[in-house]
Amino acid sequence: MTENSTVQIQKGLAGVVADMTAISKVNPETNSLLYRGYPVQELAATQPFEAVAYLLWNGELPSAEQLAELRAEERRHRALADNVRAAIDLLPLSAHPMDEVRTAVSVIGASDVSGAGSVLDAAGSPEENLARSVRLYAALPAIVAYGQRRRRGEQLVEPRDDLDYAANFLWMTFGEEADEVVVDAFNRSMTLYAEHSFNASTFTARVITSTLSDLYSAVVGAIGALKGPLHGGANEAVMHIFDEIGEADKVVAWLDEALAEKRKIMGFGHRVYKRGDSRVPTMKAALDTLVEHYDRPDVAALYDALEGEFVSRKGIYPNLDYPSGPAYNLIGFDTLTFTPLFIASRVTGWTAHVMEQTASNALIRPLSAYNGVDERHIDGYVPDAEALAAAERPEELG
Ligand SMILES: CC(=O)SCCNC(=O)CCNC(=O)[C@H](O)C(C)(C)COP(=O)(O)OP(=O)(O)OC[C@H]1O[C@@H](n2cnc3c(N)ncnc32)[C@H](O)[C@@H]1OP(=O)(O)O
Ligand SMILES: O=C([O-])CC(=O)C(=O)O
Questions:
Q1: Under DSSP, is residue 18 helix (H, G, I), strand (E, B) or coil?
Q2: Per the record's keyword annotation, is DNA repair included, yes or no (predicted)?
Q3: Most exposed: 5, 56, 69, 219, by fewest CB within 10 Å?
Q4: pLDDT bucket at 396, cuts 50 / 70 / 90
């Protein structure tokens, strides 16, 4: 907190309670995270991601019929739409995949002309927004998968109707059926990433929604916020660190240097959790199954060495991005694809918050304290006409 002569400023809104939410409860005291009342660990262990998405949007887990209905709708919207593919193909291969996905969502939004006639209709009805949420969640895996494939010079893989969400996502990315253990680890990661109260990207979505803008604009803005390495971009950044260090034996020397240079160690620390992220044990267990499946004890050794060394020196614990980075690497995703995977999951939480914000809206507009120059006046200041002309046409002056 900093003091301005008359006001107290909560820099970064740290500790500020901005509104109520019934979607998730992050409790740093008990190191727990509940989605609509259910511990996230239980959801990750027992539910397909489709059921978690349903829960976030509707407040209850689905019945068998409701799950079947959601799965059918998801399958109907799985294929990469031609206009979205065309837009992606216009982008340079060197574009960051987060920018690619952001653009794709923008194209989907501009192609949904319901409510496009007037800004007064942009916010949409609850029914329209739920349908839009389901369609976006269904469309994102193909966008993420195609992005990675095109960067690798590979052809688009069409979705498979006989596979559920997580298995089909891996199928569209790699063009082969993933083993059960891999699908399970991936499904768990999707559940763990889905929702986390008023994190920066979700708050961005709520700010945009609060102006009565549309759901797609909220998601596009949220993607922009998620890209940053202090937020979702950290899962990509963790892998860069692993690549830099190389092997467990080099951790101590690498950390000495990194800390001497005052570098932030990505994948550690959290604004809310100060004694460990509630999701890490579940994701670490998923990583362990992948380490065993792919027979990569070197990855586990590097993971443990960096965690042990950093925690003992700084007392700062890993966040979810720390285990998910190497897990996605083992599955075979390119490092640049990691944060787009986060989008594919978090779109469920973002859209649940868009609907919650819309249902009980107040424009989000905080105050600021001014610390610029004191009031001053023009006092006849006008640029000298001749000097301006000369500055605008320097070549004519010879
Ligand atoms: C899914 C997610 O979005 S989880 C977050 C993913 N982000 C990361 O992993 C990026 C690395 N972590 C960080 O930058 C921070 O821990 C944040 C941004 C996540 C949270 O930060 P804040 O709550 O604002 O705490 P802040 O950055 O002020 O950290 C407090 C102190 O711990 C230090 N610290 C916190 N995290 C780290 C880190 N990862 N590496 C080194 N030092 C750190 C800060 O330098 C600061 O030290 P100081 O008091 O000496 O200046
Ligand atoms: O809550 C936060 O600030 C960041 C985070 O862990 C998330 O969005 O999952």
A1: coil
A2: no
A3: 5
A4: low
Nearest to 163, CA basis, from 66, 272, 246, 48: 48
Distances (CA, A) of 332 to 35, 149, 267, 359: 29, 12, 20, 40
Model-level pTM greater than 0.80?
Answer: yes
Is 321 close to ligand 1, i.e. is its CB under 6 Å away? yes
Helical ranges in 194-260 per DSSP H: 200-210, 215-227, 234-245, 251-260
The answer, yes or no, to whether any atom of ligand 1 lies below 6 A from the CB of 258, is no
Structural domain range at position 264? 236-327
Q: Are residues 227 and 245 in the same domain?
A: no
Are residues 253 and 275 both part of a single domain? yes
pLDDT score at 122: 87
Q: State the CATH number of the domain containing residue 307.
A: 1.10.230.10
Query: Which atom of ligand 1 lies nearest, measured to the CA of 238?
Result: 9
Q: Which of 231, 282, 341 has most ligand 2 atoms within 8 Å of its beta carbon, as the pocket-test mutant?
A: 231
Using the mean position of ligand 2's atoms as its centre, give its distance from the Cα of residue 228 in Å: 12
Out of 184, 270, 277, 353, which one is annotated catalytic?
Answer: 270
- What CATH number is associated with residue 165? 1.10.580.10
353 and 317 share a domain? no
Q: How far is the CA of 48 from the centre of ligand 1 (A)?
A: 32
In this prediction, residue 2 has a pLDDT band, given cuts at 50, 70 and 90, of low
